[in-house]
Structure formats: C-alpha cells, structure tokens
C-alpha cells in the first residue's frame, strides 16, 4: 500500500496521529491514524459528524488534550519540526505564536475577570518588552483590525460587557496578536446568529489574505466550506477518510462512501438527516474500532487521498432510511 507523503510547503503536517482515551481501566482509540496538512494561506475545512474527532485533532496539535487522553503514535510537525518529539518543549514555545486556536465558545475561553485589551496582548506585549501604554495601543489596533467599532472604548471592557459576536472578535484578535502562521478554528461561528456568522467569516477571509495564515477550520456547515475553504478533510469515527487539496474536485467526485453520504445530505432535508442520525447510532463501537488495524490513506489523484473501504462500508453508507 502506498503511504501518504507530506506536503512540502505545509506549515502544519499531521501524520499517523493516534490518540487513546482512558475511561476507568478501559482504553480505546479516539483518533486513529489521522493525517492532514495545512499550508500558509490555505483554508482547509475539517468536517465529519459529531464525535468523529475534529476537536481532538485540534487539541492534540495545541497540546491541550484532556487529562485522560494521550497521543500514542504519529507526528505533528510545524515547519518540519515534530512538536511531539521533545516532550512538548517546542510546542510550548510556538503555542499562541506560531499556531493559535479560536474556540467555539468565547464566553468560556476568555478570562471573565481580565479586561479584554489585556487578554489580547498579554503574551505578545511581554515578549516584545512593551510598557503598559504600548500594550494598550497594540490592543486597540488589534480590536480595530477585527472590526470592533470605537476600539479605544472597548479595550477596557470585561468580556461580559460584550455581545457574543464581539467576544468572538476578541478571541480572534487574541489569536492573531502574534501573527501566527497557522490558526486552528473550532466551529468559531456556531454560537453566533446568522448575520454575525457572515461577518466573522468575512473576517477570517480577510485574515487569510492579509496575514497569509493557514487555517484549519472545523465546521458542520458545508455551506461555509463551499464559500470559504480551498481544501477539505473528512473525518469519520476518529479517522481521516478522505481529503483533497482541491475542494471543488472532492465535492464533484467524492470517493469515500461516508463523504458521499455527507454531501448527499446537503440539498435534501428529509431522509438524509435521519440517515446521518442512523449512522451515528449504528457506527462501529469504539472497542470494535480499536481492534481494527490502522490503515494508511491511499493517494487517488494529485493532492488527494482516500481511506480504503470495503463493499460492506459502501452498503452501510448507502442505506437510505425512509422518514
Ligand atoms: N474527555 C474525553 N474523554 C474520553 N473520550 C473523549 C473525551 N473527549 C473526546 N473523547 C472521544 O473522542 C471522540 C471525538 O471527540 P471530538 O470532540 O473530537 O469530536 P468532534 O468531531 O469535534 O465532535 P463535535 O462536532 O460534536 O464537536 C468522542 O466521540 C469521544 O469518544
């Protein structure tokens, strides 16, 4: 079997990443042989049903796995340096500076008792040796950059004084403060109403162009993917089952039966929603999955890979339950 080769221009490259989770004395594989890359200036969508491992993949990159989860195999390279190789020392150095993360719930991720301006520039001002005035000026500048009107007024506010959309902008300001090369976004617009979602998405588009950052963008919304992403990785049951550097090519001709089921669910409302629910409940149990050997992705075109699948998988994903 051919193995996937790392993209040469990738800023972030994840190869064969497996994560085990412990619940009591039982363990299972929560991520299984995950592989994906993000280049500078690329927006890669990361999709898959709930529980497929999207957030864990991002958390593993940031070294923020819950205490009962551990990386058991694989490499996470940032600019060709393995972040797992030195016990996390290099990761510690580049977390927030080289790679930053924007979480789904800014209300939880922000510190409620710290003024937003200070939160945005805390680390970066210290690294650059800024005094209080310079730090405040930088915070105001960053707030303006993420589209907060009258930033000098908001720099001294606390998170609870801001709307949900403003809080998400503050999170983004904090993520871009040190001009990271890669930004990991975990459903950053899910908690917001539709008009604010569109504004935040436009902000991400501008960041991609202006900063030249690579974005790994987790979403459930295939409309967002179609509008914003250049490339796409599809996860199912802890694995990357299909991906392409060319979003249009993948959408035009999905190779894996799960990707086909996912895309088929978009234009039709009846049926597929039920079907996707059915998939979640009848998917192989984690213990069963743990016994299956990890299988590498197979190249199936330029910049494109798919996981091997069987006729049984094909039948499983093709079921069309009546509503
Ligand atoms: N703290 C934990 N302890 C044990 N298992 C966990 C823990 N967190 C996640 N998992 C396991 O990892 C799997 C993947 O979780 P993850 O949060 O990455 O899914 P996701 O694709 O981001 O889902 P969603 O779209 O709902 O956010 C879960 O199904 C669960 O089995």
From TrEMBL:
One of its GO terms (molecular function) is ATP binding. GO terms for biological process: peptide transport; transmembrane transport. PROSITE patterns: ABC_TRANSPORTER_1, ABC_TRANSPORTER_2. Residues 12-262 form the ABC transporter domain. Its main location: membrane. GO terms for cellular component: plasma membrane. The keyword Cell inner membrane does not apply. SMART domains: AAA. This is ATP-binding cassette domain-containing protein. It comes from Rhizobium lusitanum. The lineage of its organism: Bacteria, Pseudomonadati, Pseudomonadota, Alphaproteobacteria, Hyphomicrobiales.
């Amino acid at each position: 079997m051919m193995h996937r080769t790392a993209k040469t221009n990738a800023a972030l490259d994840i190869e064969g990443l497996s994560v085990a989770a412990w619940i009591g004395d039982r363990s299972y594989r929560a991520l299984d042989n995950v592989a994906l890359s993000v280049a500078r200036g690329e927006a890669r969508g990361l999709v898959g049903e709930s529980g497929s491992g999207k957030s864990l993949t991002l958390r593993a990159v940031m070294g923020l796995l819950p205490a009962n989860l551990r990386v058991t195999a694989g490499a996470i390279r940032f600019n060709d340096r393995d972040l797992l190789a030195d016990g996390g020392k290099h990761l510690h150095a580049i977390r927030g500076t080289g790679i930053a993360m924007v979480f789904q719930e800014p209300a939880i991720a922000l510190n409620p008792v710290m003024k937003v301006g200070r939160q945005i520039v805390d680390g970066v001002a210290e690294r650059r040796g800024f005094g209080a005035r310079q730090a405040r000026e930088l915070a105001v500048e960053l707030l303006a950059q993420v589209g907060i009107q009258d930033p000098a007024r908001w720099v001294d506010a606390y998170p609870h004084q801001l709307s949900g959309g403003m809080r998400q902008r503050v999170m983004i300001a904090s993520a871009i403060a040190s001009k990271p090369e890669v930004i990991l976004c975990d459903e950053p617009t899910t908690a917001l109403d539709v008009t604010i979602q569109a504004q935040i998405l436009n902000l991400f588009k501008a960041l991609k162009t202006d900063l030249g950052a690579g974005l790994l963008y987790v979403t459930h919304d295939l409309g967002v993917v179609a509008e914003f992403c250049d490339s796409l990785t599809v996860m199912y049951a802890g694995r990357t089952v299909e991906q392409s550097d060319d979003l249009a090519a993948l959408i035009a001709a999905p190779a894996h039966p799960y990707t086909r089921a996912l895309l088929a669910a978009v234009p039709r409302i009846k049926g597929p929603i039920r079907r996707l629910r059915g998939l979640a409940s009848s998917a192989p149990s984690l213990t069963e999955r743990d016994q299956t050997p990890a299988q590498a992705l197979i190249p199936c075109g330029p910049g494109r890979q798919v996981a091997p699948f069987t006729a049984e998988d094909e039948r499983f994903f093709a079921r069309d339950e009546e509503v």
